[in-house]
Design brief:
The complex is a heterodimer of chains A (164) and B (81). Helix content of chain A is 74%, strand content 0%. With 164 residues, chain A is mainly α. Chain A has one domain (15-163). In chain A, helix 1 packs across helix 2 (46-72) and helix 2 packs across helix 5. Chain A is elongated, with a radius of gyration of 20 Å. The longest helix of chain B is centred in the C-terminal third of the chain and has 23 residues, at 50-72. Chain B contains three helices and no strands. Chain B has one domain (3-72). The radius of gyration of chain B is 14 Å and the shape is flat. Chain B is mainly α and 81 residues long. Chain A binds chain B through residues 4-5, 7-8, 35, 43-45, 47-48, 51-52, 54-55, 58, 62, 140, 143-144, 147-148, 150, and chain B through 50-51, 53-55, 58-59, 62-63, 66-67, 69-71, 73-74.
């Protein structure tokens, strides 16, 4: 008996909740991608889009249970995505540095992309927003999983449940 | 800016903040905090800070509420004090 209440991580029995979340999750993800892609000339951006993208996976964990959600989005993949986003952000910054500008000086990207300085700045900001979005999504999922499972990975939790 | 709308939203925000502190049921307090966040988001939008309002809606009213509910589900639901 671990005394852990897994209300947030077990599969829901309600058919309405499950059907509605199955319908809603793809639209949430499309909306999050819209927010990230339009982040540099309208409200929103990498952080907000990443939070919405993370919220869609959190909804999946709440309604379909931790084990089904981990099959779609394992903790290993989550950790890799978390560092990939930082790598994209810092990589674009250092690329500008290598091309002879300052850190995150997007104008220098024109030497690679050949699209004009203004368009190179726009594309550079878009790349940075994508990196921020990926990292924020992974961090939000990671925080939620840590709180909802009490910090135990799912496999250890199952072993403990069988012992109890 | 419409000052009447500002006043009403500020009133709702203060009511929600006081209620979230005083409610004994922790889950109820979390839901009231979500309502507080939503009114805060409306106030940001009304004052023209759409980007801040977006963050408030997604983080404050969305993920923050879920994280608080996950934390409450790990503890007792009633507050002692």
């Amino acid at each position: 008996m671990t005394g852990v209440n897994d209300m947030m991580t077990k599969q829901s029995d309600d058919v309405i909740v499950k059907t509605l979340s199955r319908l809603l999750i793809p639209f949430m993800q499309i909306y999050a991608l819209y927010v990230i892609a339009h982040g540099h000339y309208s409200p929103g951006g990498g952080f907000q889009g990443g939070v919405i993208l993370g919220a869609s996976i959190i909804l999946l964990v709440i309604t379909y249970g931790l084990d089904n959600a981990l099959r779609k989005m394992s903790e290993k993949l989550n950790t890799i995505l978390c560092s990939t986003g930082v790598f994209i952000y810092a990589g674009i910054g250092v690329l500008c540095l290598i091309l002879g500008g300052n850190f995150l000086d997007y104008a220098e990207l024109d030497q690679i992309l050949h699209v004009g300085i203004a368009q190179a700045r726009s594309l550079g900001i878009l790349g940075v927003e994508v990196g921020v979005g990926v990292t924020v999504m992974a961090a939000m999922i990671s925080i939620f999983l840590d709180i909802a499972t009490g910090g135990l990975p799912s496999k250890e939790k199952n072993i403990q449940g069988k012992r109890a | 800016m419409i000052w009447q709308l500002d006043l009403i939203l500020c009133l709702f925000i203060i009511i929600c903040a006081i209620a979230a502190i005083n409610v004994k049921d922790l889950l109820g307090a979390v839901i009231i905090l979500g309502a507080y966040s939503f009114f805060m988001c409306l106030l940001w939008t009304e004052m023209g800070a759409v980007d801040v309002a977006f963050t408030e809606a997604s983080v404050g009213a969305g993920v923050g509420t879920v994280l608080f509910i996950a934390a409450v589900s790990k503890t007792k639901r009633r507050s002692k004090d």
